[in-house]
């Protein structure tokens, strides 16, 4: 496991785009980027935003094979740099017509992240050609060891992801359909 640096931004974004580009289910990523002809460009913009936020306010971990990545947030303090990133995200990925929909999503997430004493596993992706080989499982176990003694919270939409996270010790603490797709909120202590 390697703690990623800014210089690895392009590689991290590539892994995440490869991981999510062909997933067409209702989930948080597709809720934001949609399915139009600019999908790949929007995914790149979303993951650039998330990578930069995680570098500022958390950690980004990549495995030694450069095919699996996890982004964690420790906090989301206000900074002008964060504001500029959010404006760029709104204009170039979300779009002004979808901003209220995405703000509703953020309110739903925030209502289930009401504790201040946790670390947010914000995003995890493994290239499709490397999935099913235990690489993501190894990376998440290594990061859980890194954060030993801390509460980790995540949300996911896919039942197969729930099973994956349960295998490494996460438990569901809330489930809802407030956004018209299932959201499973999970905790690891």
Throw out a few tags for this protein.
7 helices, 7 strands, globular, GNAT_dom, 189 residues, Aminopeptidase, alpha+beta, single chain, 7-stranded mixed sheet, acyltransferase activity, transferring groups other than amino-acyl groups
What do you see in this structure?
The protein has 189 residues and is α+β, with helices and mostly antiparallel strands. The protein has a single domain, classed as Gcn5-related N-acetyltransferase (GNAT) (Aminopeptidase). It is 46% helix and 20% strand. The protein has helices at 9-20, 28-33, 39-57, 80-94, 99-111, 135-146, 159-167; strands spanning 2-3, 58-62, 68-73, 119-126, 152-156, 171-176, 183-188. It has a seven-stranded mixed sheet with strand order 1-2-3-4-5-7-6, with helices on both faces. Strand 2 and strand 3 form a beta hairpin. The two termini are 21 Å apart. The mean pLDDT is 92. Residues 1-189 form the N-acetyltransferase domain.
């Amino acid at each position: 496991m390697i703690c990623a640096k800014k210089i690895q931004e392009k590689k991290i974004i590539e892994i995440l785009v490869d991981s999510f580009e062909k997933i067409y289910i209702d989930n948080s990523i597709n809720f934001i980027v949609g399915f139009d002809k600019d999908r790949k460009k929007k995914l790149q913009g979303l993951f650039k935003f998330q990578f930069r936020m995680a570098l500022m306010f958390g950690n980004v971990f990549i495995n030694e094979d450069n095919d699996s990545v996890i982004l964690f947030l420790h906090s989301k303090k206000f900074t002008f740099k964060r504001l500029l990133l959010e404006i760029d995200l709104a204009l170039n990925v979300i779009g002004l017509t979808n901003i209220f929909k995405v703000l509703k999503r953020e309110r739903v997430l925030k209502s289930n992240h009401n504790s201040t004493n946790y670390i947010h596993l914000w995003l995890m992706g493994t290239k499709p050609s490397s999935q099913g080989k235990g690489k993501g499982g190894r990376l998440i176990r290594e990061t859980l060891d890194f954060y030993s003694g801390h509460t980790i919270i995540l949300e996911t939409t896919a039942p197969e992801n729930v099973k994956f996270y349960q295998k490494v010790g996460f438990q569901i603490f809330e489930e809802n359909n407030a956004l018209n797709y299932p959201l499973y909120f999970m905790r690891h202590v």
